[in-house]
Design a protein that fits this description.
alpha/beta, 9 strands, single chain, binds iron/sulfur cluster
């Protein structure tokens, strides 16, 4: 398989707000931050390892605006596609947005992703998101709004705001990890989705690398997604571990529903899970993980369509 190397880059876990649904933080979290020279050296190493895209995420990156601008410039120098994921706290007025967006654009940022949801907007005025998006349009910076939703009607007015203002957005399912673990889960009715997942590795400020940026560090019973720490491995070695892992390959190619079916889950049970919940069921259970590892070792064809 031809892999394009890309990663989420957690420069700091610090955030200026505390969303009830945050997957990046539990209630008792202590923010950590990478040292800037270390982050620069890692990006140099990533460039040498042929990493083609870096997404600055985890916490609110633009709290450290000057550091992020410097890292984005470095990405540009190496020809790496760069994205920043932000809650838009800095765009209280159109004028304030018009100060930051050109700086990001001139530094070479490829795309700004604005986080938006009823949980984010309990702390950040939705006008901020509008100001930031309009400023992106004005200065020619690619952007999109990540509209996190639990698909309940409570989100309709939030979605309508985006439509009324003709903003570019994509719905993104709420993940029931981190602080959202305690949320009540409404039923989602679909047919039998394959639940393929692209995955996206994550490097944390502590230099741990996970194969999945969304819930990678939350699979605490098996540490299934943990690849290793940069103190013990090179970037290239960590990517090779990620690329050569047979089960990660199956998550991307045959999908979680087929993997679940192959170890005996009934279709009537599989359809009750959201994608990441099914992933958790399969890979955060020592028994299921053992069964799957045995299956791929003994007969890969058993799991192949
Ligand atoms: S979801 Fe994003 S904006 Fe909200 S607390 Fe977590 S890191 Fe901060
Ligand atoms: S399905 Fe699994 S690999 Fe994909 S985002 Fe969810 S937890 Fe991560």
């Amino acid at each position: 398989m031809n892999h394009i190397r890309k990663t989420a880059f957690g420069y700091s876990t610090q955030c200026n707000i505390k969303c009830d649904h945050c997957v990046a933080a539990e209630d008792d979290y202590h923010p950590v931050k990478m040292a800037l020279p270390r982050a620069r050296a890692i990006i140099d190493e990533m460039a040498a390892a042929n990493v083609k895209a870096i997404s600055f995420t985890a916490g609110e990156p633009l709290i450290f605006l000057n550091d992020i601008l410097s890292l984005v410039r470095l990405c540009k120098k190496h020809g790496i596609y760069s994205r920043v994921v932000s809650n838009g706290f800095w765009a209280k007025t159109p004028e304030q947005a018009d100060k930051i967006i050109p700086e990001l654009k001139i530094s070479g940022l490829s795309q700004l992703r604005l986080s938006y949801s009823r949980w984010h907007q309990a702390h950040i005025n939705r006008e901020n998101i509008l100001n930031a998006a309009v400023s992106c349009q004005k200065f020619g910076l690619d952007y999109f709004i990540s509209f996190v939703t639990d698909f309940s009607n409570a989100d309709d007015t939030f979605e309508q705001f985006l439509k009324d203002n003709r903003l570019k957005y994509f719905p993104e399912p709420l993940l029931y990890f981190g602080r959202a673990k305690k949320f009540n889960r409404s039923h989602v009715f679909t047919d039998y989705p394959p639940h393929l997942c692209d995955m996206n590795p994550l490097l944390t400020p502590e230099l741990d690398m996970y194969a999945c940026c969304d819930a990678g560090s939350c699979f605490d019973k098996t540490d299934f997604f943990f690849l290793g720490n940069l103190k013990n491995y090179t970037i290239n070695e960590l990517f090779e571990k990620y690329e050569q892992h047979p089960l990660f390959g199956l998550i991307k190619t045959i999908g979680l529903s087929n993997i679940a079916s192959s170890i005996g889950l009934n279709a009537s049970e599989i359809v009750k899970y959201r994608k990441c919940e099914l992933c958790e069921k399969l890979f955060n259970s020592p028994e299921n993980l053992k069964a799957l590892e045995t299956a791929v070792k003994s007969d890969l064809g058993f799991l192949r369509r």
